[in-house]
Amino acid sequence: MSSLFLTNKQLILASASPRRKDYLQGLGITFVSMAAQIDEQPMAGEKPEPFVERMAAEKAAEISGRHVESWVVAADTVVSLGDRIFGKPSSGEEAVEMLLALAGRRHEVRTGYCLHCVAEKVKEVGSVVSQVEFASFDEQLARAYVETGEPMDKAGAYGIQGKGACLVKSVNGSYSNVVGLPLDRVLSLLLRYDVVRVVGAVSL
């Protein structure tokens, strides 16, 4: 399979997420994956948008502080219903509770992203939001889905790119954002700073 992009500079993805890695690898982008070690709990009263942007910036900073010459991409995704933030479930019961709270309702999926390079004094932070509407379903389906194990490492306890697709009625906005990486925004930054280039393009 031919690549769409070539990588010009040393790039680190500050994440161990298979979904994020698959997106970048599928485009031919070369990078190293490193999970950042930070406290990922929201502060009291913190709303979804500032929370995901703070998380992405802190993840990038943690890796950038140890690799000052590298370009670091970080992201953080949460599901929210109003101001209630749904992160990754800590147990099967919490996953079921999350899914039933979202059943038959429209919620938001927001991903914060950050591109950071200490040596070049670059720090770009932003976020993207998509609206997802769940179909109506009962506790039996929620528990059966949780038993598959798929929800346990995912914000909001579901993966739209996997079996969780059966729960989704509609998506308004970026699909890749719901998966965990808003590709259009991230690629725009990588291209702007010449971290990557389109195959065949001349790098100046």
Q: Low-confidence parts lasting 5 or more residues at pLDDT below 50? A: none
The fraction of residues assigned to DSSP E strands is 25-35%
**What is the string of helix and strand elements?**
EEHEHEEHEEHEHHE
Distance between the termini: 26 Å
Q: What radius of gyration results from the CA coordinates?
A: 17 Å
What assembly state would you assign to the polypeptide chains in this entry? single chain
Instruction: Give the rounded overall mean pLDDT.
Output: 95
* Beta strands, count: 9
**Helicity level, as a percent range?**
25-40%
Shape: globular
The largest pleated sheet is described as: 7 strands, mixed
Structural class: alpha+beta
Q: Tell me the number of helical segments per DSSP (H or I, 4 or more residues long).
A: 6
Give a written overview of the molecule:
By secondary structure, the protein is α+β, with helices and mostly antiparallel strands. It contains six helices and nine strands. The strands form two sheets. Strands 2, 3, 4, 5, 6, 7 and 8 form a seven-stranded mixed beta sheet that branches. Helix 3 crosses helix 4. It is globular, with a radius of gyration of 17 Å. It starts with a strand and ends in a 6-residue tail after the last strand. The model has no long low-confidence stretch (mean pLDDT 95).
Structure at a glance:
This protein is of the alpha+beta class.
Topology of this protein?
Layout: E1 5-7, E2 11-13, H1 18-26, E3 32-33, H2 48-64, E4 71-81, E5 84-86, H3 92-102, E6 106-117, E7 122-134, H4 139-147, E8 168-172, H5 175-179, H6 183-192, E9 196-198
Parallel strand pairs: 2-3, 2-4
Antiparallel strand pairs: 1-9, 4-5, 4-6, 6-7, 7-8
